[in-house]
Amino acid sequence: MLGGVNNHLFLMSLAGFPVLLFLILILKWTTKPGHSLVARRPIQGKESDYGTLVPVSSPNNHIEGEIVRQQLLAVGIRATLTQTTDGPRVFVFPQEESAARAHLKSFS
C-alpha cells in the first residue's frame, strides 16, 4: 500500500512488461541474420576447394561413386562422395590416400 491506496492492480498491470521484453529478446535472437537453423543449399566447387581431402576416384555418376565409397568404408577407409564442378568425386584423407588407391586398384 503506497500512500494509503491499494496498488495491487497497478503493479499487476506492470507485470506484463517483463514478459513482453522477454518475448522481444527471444524473437530478436531467433531471427538474427546469418544464424539460421535451416541448412543452406550446398555450393559445388573444384576438386581443390575441399581442404585437405584428396580425390581418389572420378566415377561416371553418383551411383558408381557410392559403390566406390561403400567399398572403401568396408575396409575401414573414411571416404566421402561429393558432386564437384568436374563431376562426382570420392575424397579421402591424405594419410589414407595410398591405402585407398591400392584398394581401388585391386578392384579394377
Question: Could you explain how this protein is built, in words?
Answer:
This protein is α+β, with helices and mostly antiparallel strands and 108 residues long. The protein has a domain at 47-107: Alpha-Beta Plaits (2-Layer Sandwich), CATH 3.30.70. The chain has helices spanning 8-14, 16-30, 62-74, 97-107; strands spanning 54-57, 79-84, 87-92. Strands 1-3-2 form a 3-stranded antiparallel beta sheet. Strand 2 (79-84) and strand 3 (87-92) form a beta hairpin.
Quick overview:
By secondary structure, the protein is of the alpha+beta class. It has helices at residues 8-14, 16-30, 62-74, 97-107, and strands spanning 54-57, 79-84, 87-92.
Give the strand line-up of the largest sheet: 1-3-2
Strand content: 5-15%
The rough form would be described as rod-shaped
Helix content: 40-55%
Number of strands: 3
User: CATH superfamily assignment of the domain at 47-107?
Assistant: Hypothetical protein rpa1041
The number of helical runs is 4
Provide mean pLDDT, rounded: 85
By secondary-structure content and strand pairing, the structural class works out as alpha+beta
Task: State the name of the first-level CATH class of the domain at 47-107.
Answer: Alpha Beta
Tell me the CATH architecture of the domain at 47-107: 2-Layer Sandwich
**Helix and strand element order:** HHEHEEH
- Distance between the ends: 90 Å
Give the C-alpha Rg.
29 Å
Flag low-confidence runs. Answer: none
Largest sheet: 3 strands, antiparallel
Question: Do you know the CATH topology of the domain at 47-107?
Answer: Alpha-Beta Plaits
